Amino acid sequence: MNLRCIFIPLIALGFAGCVAQDSTVSSSSEAAPASSVTTTSSSPTSSSQASSSSLTPPVSSSSAAAISSSSMASGEKTMVMAINVGAREAATYNGIEYGRDQFGSGGTQNSTPDPIANTDEDSLFQSERYGEAMSYSIPVTNATYTVVLHFVEMYQTANAMRTFDVSIEDQTVLSALDIHDAAGHDTAYSYTAENLAVSDGKLSITLTARNDNATLSGFAIYSSDGGQFVEPVIDSSAVCPASEPCRILPFGDSITDGVPATGAGGYRAPLFELAVNAGKSITFVGGNQNGPATIAGQPFPQNHQGHSGWTVAQINDLIPSPAFDGSPHIVLLHIGTNDMWNGPNGLEGRLESLDDILNEAPNALVAVASIIPWQDHAARIASYNQAIPGIVQAQVDAGFKVIFVDQFQGFPSQELADGIHPNAAGYERMGQKWFDAIESYLP
Fold first, then answer.
1. Span of the secretion signal (predicted)?
2. Mean pLDDT of 241-269
């Protein structure tokens, strides 16, 4: 049987993930889903589907996103959440809005402009997340759920070129799925698994490749016994490990680099000193190095990912490598100053790096700062900064660990060395604000 994936866009800040890969499902493996799970497929009938006697009759191909024709019509199941996998924007399918990609881990985002067969609404099936191993963990109340999975084979053009397994709540619902065999190339395919009991507050979907990569384009979750989505709350104990220093990635332009006095370490030096004096254990990661040798009697971690003169677009090119080679637990993001030469228009596109960061490090805490004042472009910076809290909130609503840090408010002009970059007092101020924002997450 084939699964259909929907790519969910990460809000305007720009993390998204999608995967498209080939997969083949044998009739024997599909005929033996977990005994406690009721399954239904929807796509043009293949030989493997026809022989799967344990499956309930397939839903009509035009209703791939529905749970079943009878249950949806009777209103027995209520919508909990729907995700457009691998996409940064929402998509509507069969009257249901699938939100941007979130709650996922692993895999790579991908999309295709190709028209999709077996549906009149292509957008949900034109994005994917693919990879050898990937998963979704959706915060929900303990209840019984139905999950509709959406797939498309947008890459492989023959059977048996891509096969993978899908498990929901540790129960295998699809074994050796071959989307091409079940539906064909660039053809929508959906699969429904019912009677999925959640007892730990998270509905888990896991995809594991057999041949080539696993892929998913979207999914919808329903409940018949009152199950609900739970708004995520950042667990401070889940950000940094207690057994090792918390890895922090200072990420941005010349202000992260520490210009004009890079040897002093910019805001990183006072931030590190505050952490040491508070008994916190941190280190910095990134591909660049500068700063003092020691601070507060401790070796100073000189790593960072600050690049003088760089715009948001240039910063985006560092994701995933080398920026995330150090697997940061916390990302400090202060970018956009150099973009003010051209004004704040197109903010969402410029800040797509946030989506990329969240896709690359979905479990990291990302602290997004408003940029500090620049006397020559005060109006542009005010407009740019005004939009950032809403972008951050959208990511929070999507389930990511993102916080807003107001580096602009209260920053006096006398703490600018040249009208753009902080002097020593300005960097002290920035270091204090960063520390205040992340202190509760540090071991």
1. 1-20
2. 94
